[in-house]
Every structure is written in structure tokens, then in C-alpha cells.
Specification:
CATH topology of chain A: Monooxygenase
Oligomer: homodimer
Largest interface: A-B, 37 and 39 residues
CATH architecture of chain A: Up-down Bundle
Shape of chain A: elongated
Structural class of chain A: mainly alpha
Helix content of chain A: over 70%
């Protein structure tokens, strides 16, 4: 298999995975199983990939990581708003 | 900032994020907030990154994606075993 196609499929899967996940979290108003450390590390880490994409002007990196960041922030907001008091 | 260092920090964050997340899931025996689609897409997608790492003989890609796959499979096993019946 062509290496570039492998990377493209991998990136498409790991990005599109976040769309049904975010939908589930919004619908169930529940994100308590997500660890804050996971969320914060992922948001910072993926933001750095996003910046990296901007620096090398790579549209797929910008789009993929942009979608993932929006999803992760949404999960974090739901987790915070609907936390058990 | 050096672009390679940016990528290294990003990869370290997005990989190490899974360690406390997996610990939390095992400890609470709960992973119901995770979407099956997210888990399956992430496992396949990260497995492809792992294969990509093997193809280009890149140790950081192999190690980082190997840790993430083990974590994601563990989350999937907990989600399946402790599903609400």
C-alpha cells in the first residue's frame, strides 16, 4: 500500500472518530468517564499539531486537528457543565 | 520554536494523555461515555499509524501509537465487560 494513502486513511479515521463521540456526549449530557488529564493533554497536544500544520501550511493537518480540537473542547464543556455536584 | 520539537511535544502529550485515562476507566470500571464508533475508528486509525511507523522504521511512531492502541483496547474491553445489561 502507498505510504501516503496509509497516512491519509489513518488521519481520516482518527479525526472522523470524534464526530459521533461528540454527538454522543451532547445527546447523553454525560462525559464523566473522560479524564480531565486526557482532555487537557489532548487539547494542548492537538493544538500543537494544529500550529505545526499552520507553520508548514498543510491544509489536511489544519482541518483534521481543527475538528478534533472543537470536539475535545465540546466534550470538556459538557463534562464541566453536567458534572456531578 | 523548532518544528521538530513542536511535533515531539505534541506526540508526547497526545500519547501520555491515554495513561491516566486508561487508569481512570479501569479504576471506575466505567467507559459508557465512550462511543463504540470513536473506539473502533481510533483503534484502526492508530493501528495504521503504527504500521506506518513500522514501514518507515520510526521508533517514536511505533512506541507512541503502540501505547495508544493498548490503552484504547483496554478501554474497549472495560466498556464491553461492564456494559449495562
Amino acid at each position: 500500500m502507498n505510504i501516503d494513502i496509509l497516512g491519509l486513511i489513518a488521519a481520516t479515521l482518527t479525526t472522523s472518530a470524534y464526530i459521533p463521540q461528540t454527538y454522543k456526549v451532547i445527546k447523553t449530557k454525560s462525559a464523566s468517564d473522560f479524564s480531565w488529564i486526557w482532555l487537557i493533554f489532548m487539547i494542548i497536544g492537538i493544538f500543537l499539531w494544529f500550529v505545526y500544520g499552520l507553520m508548514i501550511k498543510n491544509i489536511p493537518l489544519i482541518v483534521a486537528n481543527g475538528i478534533s480540537i472543537i470536539s475535545l473542547i465540546t466534550i470538556g464543556v459538557v463534562k464541566y457543565v453536567y458534572r456531578q455536584s
